[in-house]
Amino acid sequence: MAPRGWPGSLLHLLLCWSVYGMVPEPKNLRLHSVMFDSVLEWDPPDFHKENLVYTVQYKTKISDVFIDLCRRIVSTKCNVSHIPAYSSSTIQVRTEFENEYSNWENVSFTPYRETRIGPPAIQVEATKPGVLNVQLIEPSFTLNDGNRSLKEFYGIAIYRILIWKKYHNTEQVQEVNTTDTFQVIRDLDPMTTYCLKAQAFIAELYKDGQWSEPICTNTTDTGLHPGLLTVTILLVLISFPFFSLIIFYIYRWIKYTFFPSYSLPQHFKEFLSKPSYGSQFLMSHSQEEEHAYNKIIVLSEESKNDASECEIQLSNAEQHLEQSQEENYKPKEDSGCISLIHT
Q: What domain range includes position 314?
């Protein structure tokens, strides 16, 4: 008589395994697929024997023939990226031990709908105050031994960009949705650190992609930082009196050097403006008036013994002066002796 209840069923199953050599199926099948890079994983069964191997097969919805993907492998995972991307396929796996096999465990998979979209790469550049230029590099993947872009495969991809201040994670500044891979983010605070992340979104399938890792950058300065502006104004106010005083003294020096305030007397100006008249005036007065002359004799060391000769020269100069009253003075030089007659 067979035992009743699930403990009895479990005991009966273990007895059958021990008697008939049955191999249990793999457990907990799961698929991981990112950008059509797909891997099937499972957990090994609870079995008292070692050296278990596994076989993985697939077939499409329109076919009844299973095709091997991984045959008699020791690993508990198999790459299933080569199954058709647009078709719904059935993937099955079983446990094998020597000539014994378990039942098949299967899972359905449609890569086009179920694969996860990878994150786009982000390049950020701060060119103007409060403005960031964001360049997105769309994710690519390999399919059927060829590189494909997201737009080529799905047609239209929408990119979501989140921007927030680095030290205000809960404060979302902007959310941008765009189909372009280049976007200009405006109206940001200057000299502030912002962080960005992006994801792709397939609207046709309502399918979200993975978020990229946040990247942070600083916006540029407006050139009028309040603290720097205050310091600049204070320096100008302090230095203004000093530079004003320097400029004042330079101005006075130039004025009194090149433009003196005093002027020549009026009769000097008239004389300089009419030199011929001045000469006639002096000559007319010199004829009417008698002048007293002082005799000055300058002797050099070499001509001290020639004093008498200098006296003779001086007498001749006086006679010559009387004959020519147009001259004011008449110098003579001879043998180191200089005589000067002054009127």
A: 293-343
Q: 155 lies in a domain?
A: yes
H-helix or E-strand spanning residue 57: strand 53-60
**Separation between Cα atoms, residue 100 and residue 50, nearest integer Å:** 13
* Within-domain flag for 249: no
Q: Would you say 86 and 78 are in contact if contact means Cβ atoms under 8 Å apart?
A: no
- What distances in angstroms separate CA 276 from CA 57, 263, 272, 273, one per listed residue? 132, 22, 9, 9
Question: What DSSP string describes 19-32?
Answer: HH---PPPEEEEEE
Distance (Å, whole) CA 39 – CA 91: 11
Instruction: Tell whether 106 and 56 lie within a shared domain.
Output: yes
Instruction: Please give the full DSSP string across 106-132, using - where no structure is assigned.
Output: EEEE-HHHHSBBPPPEEEEEEEEBTEE
Pair 155, 214 in one domain: yes
Per-residue pLDDT of the chain (343 residues; tens, 9 = 90+): 344 455 555 555 554 444 345 889 999 999 999 999 999 999 999 887 788 999 999 999 988 899 999 999 999 999 999 999 988 999 999 999 988 999 999 999 999 999 999 999 999 999 888 899 999 998 888 877 678 888 888 888 999 999 999 887 656 778 999 999 999 999 888 888 999 999 999 988 889 999 999 999 999 876 555 666 677 888 888 888 878 888 888 877 777 776 666 566 666 667 667 655 545 555 555 454 555 555 555 555 555 555 566 566 666 666 666 665 554 444 444 444 444 444 4
Domain assignment present for residue 213? The answer is yes
Residue 129 and residue 210 in one domain: yes
Please indicate, yes or no, if residue 84 is contained in any of the structural domains.
yes
Closest CA to 219 of 269, 174, 266: 174
Q: Which residues contact 225 (CB under 8 A, 6 or more apart)?
A: 191
Q: Which of 218, 249, 277 is the last residue of a domain?
A: 218
